[in-house]
Design goal:
The chain has 170 residues and is of the alpha/beta class. It is built from five helices and four strands; from the N terminus they run E-H-E-H-E-E-H-H-H. Helix 1 runs parallel beside helix 4 and helix 4 crosses helix 5.
Length: 170
């Protein structure tokens, strides 16, 4: 049975580009395949605006700022001890992406909105599977390497321009 990715657009600030839903599904499936996830999975992805993600970030993380993406895993630290019945998909969590923030970051890093949405989806999927990077160090390097491996497989490698333009480029 195939993975199920439910995508909802709960914002009107940015027109969702054509092909974005397919891209998000491809990203979710690529992460599950890359990580050897052994069950069909069910994931919910919701697009929101900065105001809504700020509200959620305040409510769930006590951080009163707009962020780019939030992950809500249904299993702690990727311990998937629940076997889905009869090949039914295992709900692994929810992803919430601020499309306004994705546009800002795509402009900031001088790459496409599709590349940014793909990155945020892959990043969040890794969180749903139990990966953490908040403490930095080797864990963060490990997560970044996994992200880039998956994005390369999707044909969206990190470009030479994946650095903020400080206006001093030669």
């Amino acid at each position: 049975m195939a993975n199920k990715v439910y995508i909802t657009n709960n914002q009107n600030a940015v027109k969702i580009p054509s092909g974005t839903r397919l891209l998000v599904r491809r990203c979710c499936n690529a992460v599950l395949e890359n990580e050897g996830f052994k069950y069909p999975a069910e994931i919910s992805v919701t697009f929101v605006d900065n105001e809504e993600i700020k509200r959620m970030n305040t409510q769930f993380r006590d951080k009163p700022t707009a962020t780019d993406v939030l992950s809500f895993p249904l299993f702690e630290d990727g311990n998937f001890d629940e076997v889905p019945p009869d090949g039914q998909p295992l709900a692994i969590g929810d992803i919430v992406i601020s499309i306004e923030k994705a546009v800002e970051q795509a402009n900031e890093y001088n790459h496409s909105l599709q590349r940014e949405i793909a990155f945020l989806t892959v990043h969040s999927m890794l969180h749903l599977l139990g990966y953490h990077h908040e403490e930095g160090g080797l864990r963060e390097v490990h997560v970044r390497e996994r992200e880039e491996t998956i994005l390369r497989k999707l044909g969206l490698p990190r470009g030479y321009n994946y650095v903020k333009d400080d206006g001093n480029a030669q």
